[in-house]
Write a structure and sequence with these properties.
The chain is an alpha/beta fold. Helices cover 53% and strands 9% of the residues. The protein has an eight-stranded parallel β-sheet. Helix 10 (250-253) links the parallel strand 7 and strand 8. Helix 4 (65-90) packs across helix 14 (320-344), helix 7 runs parallel beside helix 9 and helix 8 (194-207) crosses helix 14.
Length: 351
Amino acid sequence: MTQTSPTCLWNDSAAVEELTYSIEHGAVGATCNPVIALSVLKLEMPFWSQRIRELIAREMPAANEDQIGWRVIEEMSANGAKLLEPIFEAHGGRNGRLSIQTDPRNYRDTEAILEQAARFSRLAPNMIVKIPVTRAGIPAIEEATYRGISINATVSFSLPQCVAVAEAVERGLRRREREGKDIATMGPVCTIMVGRLDDWLKVVMEKERISTDPGYLEWAGVAVFKKTYTIFQERGYRIRLLSAAFRNHMHWSEFIGGDVVISPPCAWQKRYNASDIPVIPRIQTPVEGRIVEDLLRRFADFRRAWTEDGLGLEEFDSFGPTVRTLRQFNAATTDLAVLVREFMLPNPDGR
């Protein structure tokens, strides 16, 4: 795929071993967030346990566990960015970036998002900053873009969210252009968490006792992604779509051939590399009409995700997949602080 199509591979992890494997197999980017950071800590605990102790004892003696946890995320992301710097230089800024996520607890606060985005963008020349597609996130995306920060719009599941992101990025880019500021080296992307839309519709199916072909629900995120891609191409938006939250091979195979980013975890990449699934362009092949029609008829939230005016800006924060994802991201942020606390305040009883 990476050699025969414009489709790019990014690695959904900042773990050094996993990112190294991905780069060797054509990856040109990577990502980190609180959930990923926890998994990387477990993979690389011998290194990070010592680093956390150093931060607690010497470098940040007055910091709380939350502050140290975020320093770990910053350092983890900077390490990944270093591995990607040669690709960043070769691609002129479009690829070779490490995505680092702003604190998901700030999803309602535009200024807090911007403050952290500005800090993160200075960690390395090839950082790209994840900003949630919430009511407060959209103005943050425009302003960050205007300031020259490449953004990765995340916590995004629907066509209306993606269009809002693309328009915000265009506004930011046009403001820079009017002032003669550089945009050539910027590389914004807009994520669709395709598997998380599928997950949510499965929850709705059980909750509302909907009967349908269960296989249809594997196509919901794919259908939304393909429709969004077509609209982005028609309108000439200067932002790429990124597929994330992998649940089946179609979240990779159905997007081959598009000028998009595919960002699976390393384990999924190894599964794909070992498979006999033909690597052929499918981005222009629409999802079967009977599947889309069934999903539209049975699931109001699919209609909201599929239709450009299905969600208003004021509804982004309350959309089911958004709530579910923010809860998980917020919980992971808390879990990271708890992990650091175990180093800061070890149990005196050894239990």
